[in-house]
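Lab notes, practical 5.
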Amino acid sequence: MDLKSLLNKEQYEGATTVDGQVLILAGAGSGKTRVLTYRMAHMIEDLGIFPWKILAITFTNKAAKEMRDRVRSIVGEKADDMWISTFHSTCVKILRRDIDKLGYKTSFTIYDTSDQKVLYKECMKALQINDKDITLQEIMGKVGRAKDSMISPAAFKREHESNFRENKIADVYEMYQKRLKENNALDFDDLIGKTVELFKKNPDVLEFYQNKFKYIMVDEYQDTNGAQYELVRLLAERNKNICVVGDDDQCIYQWRGADITNILEFEKDYPNCKVIKLEQNYRSKGNILDAANVVIVNNSRRKSKALRTVQEPGSKVKIYRAYSDREEGDFAGREIQNIRARESDRNYNDFAVLYRTNAQSRIFEEGFRRRGIPYKIIGGTKFYDRKEIKDILAYLKILVNPQDDISIKRVINVPKRSIGDATVNKVSEFAEMYELNLWDALTEARTIPTLTPRNCGSIEKFTSVMENLMIMAETMTPSMIIETILKDTGYLEELKKSQEIEDKARIENLEELVSDAVDFEKGNDEDKSLAAYLEKVSLVQDTDKIEEEEDAVVMMTIHSAKGLEFPYVFMVGMENGLFPSKGDIEREEQMEESRRLCYVGITRAKEVLYMTSAEVRRVFGRTVSYSQSDFINEIRTDLKEYINERSTNGASREGFFGSPEKPMHGNPHGLRSGFKKNTSSLYGNTSNSAPSNGGDLDSSNLSLGKKVKHEKFGVGTIVSITPSGDDKKLTIAFDKQGVKMLMLSMAKLELI
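Output from the prediction step:
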């Protein structure tokens, strides 16, 4: 292949440096997938390396599929002999072959977050831990981080034996792992941790894979955690032909275990490695790229690099400061409509609204609905998280792995079979007493003395149906067995009898599940088994399911947007307190991660970037006021433009909550520090006829920025004045009571 004509100088170097250790620092939009694709094609076509000697690991199914398809388009079917998959998929393949060496059966179930929660709650109940004392979320978070760092339950307990609270969490961790094994199940963290454990306890297994994979490539290396780092280190230890690709400036998952030191210290781990920097950006216009560069350079923990582009500067970053969050949402909808009116070739899916948290979507949803703008939310209720889908998946999991107690408990009485919680508890107690799993206990129902004949009859009907399904599952395709479950269990019949509209939608979702299974059966994977289908479902990610042909504005968190790009991007809620959050501002390490997240958001935009904020918004039912984000302030003046509409008196609404060029970390209300009483020349005097309010403030001396005192709320500053009939509605930021809205005629305000 003539790679020199296909790649730029740095890309060519990355694609052709095959032996030894290579660190490719790939800036946003710099063509890293292209480099990896041609690197693999070059190895197979030009160097004659057997495809099965290559392991390429990515973080998402979508990225793995894209990479596989690209390599296949160059080298043909030979690409099918390569392992190009996610960390989790790679580990599942290894564990399916050898996990019996750790005392598990190879038919193990993979527990998703919902399954994990059920099992954690059972453990907490058994250990008499009240969720009000130690929350489920805290326990799951700490255990997850322990697993990411390869800390076993015993080690975790030793580390925290003198801390009562942490010691309780250690007990949950220990019981949780014990019950997972009893259920022949693994959670997502275990997939990697158990693979590492398998390698360390079985040198022959490790040697097999070290010989198999002579060349290893890892994408998005900056997002690896401790367990993933150790997995890669072990696999590469023998041949030391390892190429990692990543961008420390896009490390945005530290909160879920990503360790930025893995990429920052790669040269320390491999002193002879070659470092190649991809700094040519092919995605964004010049001003957008420069804005990203001037923001990220404020971070201290990073590799030195700067993105460049041959594209024209394009539009400056457009900064919009709305009065309220509702107006911010309306602005985005209005602007999208205006752009589409001007540019007839623009589709709705050319636009993306990116926010810090999912909770921010509601305002924009309302604004888009009012204007009839189609939108889709990535990261809402996922298809596989819907009740009816999880119910049928639980049935499937039982067929593959009858030891899965969690799945059995989920569906043993769905649809209703007269097997209530009390009956299940009696069977569970019997199972625990005789060290049986739940399925084996159910099949021995007649021997359980606490059950009535009626209980036993109901249980036997359930086990009979399941045993028949297990037999049929041996020869049926996944789609056929799903249809059979729906029919033989009575699940579909119960939904059809229902008059609820919601249940009609459930039927449609189940039809979609059958279609999903059919698509799987028509796919390229050799393994079409039910177990393989369940793996595919377990490993799927929400961003993998973005339908590109659907013409709708995409709304998602910036975390979800990583790896995607759009012609027009709205980064919304850009305020100190939201983005960066209050916690980010207080801790430098978190502030740096938040800045990296901002960098990722900026570099999603190809042509035009908007950064919007609001003077006041509702947060947890309270009206709050935040200053404009420091990240906007870090962008040079020559790279941005303020596009606020003028208010009716000719004054710009932008600016009252802090100078756009000055950070205001210490100001709880976001008010400009050192603000003077006399601001009428800046904002215009808004006095018109309005009744007296009972204090010494009235329409004759009313203006923005005035300091006032209220008998109940104390001292505050007027931040907004809105006509309301013959009266005035005042928004006041009180020093100790937050933001309140009061009517001038009734507020009884005194001037200070």
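Observations recorded by the TA: DSSP finds 32 helices and 21 strands in the chain. The first strand starts at residue 21 and ends at 26.
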